[in-house]
Amino acid sequence: MAGSFRSLLADLEAEHDSLDRVVAGLDERGWDTSTPAEGWRVRDQVGHLTFFDRTAAQSARDPEAFVADRDRALADITAFARDAESIGRTLSGDALLDAWRVARAELVVALATAAECDESARLPWYGPPMSLRSFTTARLMETWAHGQDVVDGLDLPLTARPPTDRLAHIAFLGCATRGWSYVVRGREAPASPVLVTLTLPSGATFTNGDPSAADRVQGAALDFCLVVTQRRNVADTELEVTGDAATEWLSIAQAFAGGPTLPPPPGARLTGRRSA
User: Fold this and answer.
1) Where are the domains of the chain?
2) What is the architecture, at CATH level 2, of domain 169-252?
3) Which parts of the chain sit beneath pLDDT 50?
4) Alpha carbon 141 to its chain's center
5) Coil, helix or strand for 240?
């Protein structure tokens, strides 16, 4: 397994552990805390991760079985949603945390095994198939994004889950899914390139795109990741956005699979950003 993929897996595990530290000490009342996602409590967020870490592990272990199960499940969206929600809504907080720990550990093993067999493999999912690396990055993104919902719901400061340079993975995925943000809406992405230049928590620079592009996005990697995962409206960040193409993209940016959704309205999610 190439060192770069091993490093990505280590970052995925670190993201798991970061959220684990936030929820590990919660009592049942804490698990029942509402989060900004309507109708979702902390337990629903972690239950969601548990369910999809399990199905992601299946995709890595046995892609054909995953596709068959996925297609059967998606034939009845209501039942599928009910099954996905049941983990968080039927288990106690401690049992749910144990279930998530097992699911995510199995996921990491399945991804590592898939990489050893064929690191160029493409894995099926609920949207377009993804390369093994993008698939793993997407799981990291999901963990971080749903973790943000938990942090916001509990009204915790940034120090409860400090931003790290793992945000570079999410930023990359956010840039890579620019076209998907249009496709999922039945629209054609504009041909105009966009240059994204971000400052990571360490002070390092993340850059993606054509350096000569007139359309640009500049600012903190944290702000960009919050926008492309639809956890903040771009108006509530300090991102500098130049050009019509960049402006339109960030108004609909969607770095995750599923149907088209929109970011929260301006001012709707301003918690979880205080330093202490």
Assistant:
1) 3-155, 169-252
2) 2-Layer Sandwich (3.30)
3) 1-2, 272-276
4) 3
5) strand
d(CA 142, CA 131): 16
Which residues sit opposite 34 in a β-bridge?
Answer: 41
C-alpha distances out from residue 247 to 101, 176, 227, Å: 39, 16, 12
Q: How many Cα atoms within 13 Å fall on the side-chain side of residue 80?
A: 13
Question: Which CATH number applies to 3-155?
Answer: 1.20.120.450
Q: Chain-centre distance of CA 160, in angstroms?
A: 18
C-alpha 99/C-alpha 94 separation (Å) is 9
pLDDT per residue over 14-71, tens digit each? Answer: 999 999 999 999 999 999 999 999 999 999 999 999 999 999 999 999 999 999 999 9
Asked whether the beta carbons of 1 and 116 are under 8 A apart, the reply is yes
Residue ranges in 24-92 assigned as alpha helix (H): 28-31, 42-61, 63-74, 77-90
User: Considering the entire predicted model, what is its pTM?
Assistant: 0.94
Identical topology for domains 3-155 and 169-252: no
3-class DSSP assignment, residue 205: strand
CA–CA gap between residue 221 and residue 203 (Å, rounded):
10
Q: What does the DSSP assignment read for 201-241?
A: TTS-EEEES-TT-SEEEEEEHHHHHHHHTTSS-GGGS--EE
**Angstrom distance (rounded) from CA 237 to CA 215:** 18
Each residue's pLDDT tens digit, 109-123: 999 999 999 999 999
* Greatest extent of the chain over all pairs of C-alpha atoms, in Å: 53
- Contact call for residues 268 and 147 (beta carbons, < 8 A): no
The two structure tokens encoding residue 150: 């938990």
Residue 75's CB is within 10 A of a number of other CB atoms, namely 9
Find out whether 206 and 221 touch, Cβ atoms under 8 Å. Answer: yes
